[in-house]
Amino acid sequence: MNLRITIALVVLFVVVILGAVLIATPTPISGPNGDTQEEGRFISENVKVSSPRPDSTVLKTFTVIGEARGTWYFEASFSIFIIDANGVKVGQGIAQAAENWMTEDFVPFTAQVTVENYSGPAILVLLKDNPSGLPENDDSVSFPIVIQ
Fold it and tell me: Entry's Pfam families (predicted)?
């Protein structure tokens, strides 16, 4: 009898622990290009942005913080643009690698972005640096933000 109670308690304990783990694990939200948002962060195959978060409101000057694969950089940098609701570029910045960028691994970056004379919905675009100019080497990721 005691053995049955012990086994039942162990099984119950395992079920409770597994349930807690499943509830605590965030579910990634997939975007149209296979990009995801996990815990509010923007994540793609080559770029992870921790700040700003998608759909967040930012000031006219703000910092973009994240990681990009070393293949996205050329001479330790790549461009960031802000596109307004009409498709017009209204701001820009340069992402600078914080570590050695000559790798295929993720490399941390920061960028100061400034927006001139615009408030409202916008798209934050991170553009892979492509010194070759070859279209097959072009790449970018983007997500919506709001300029205050």
Answer: Gmad2
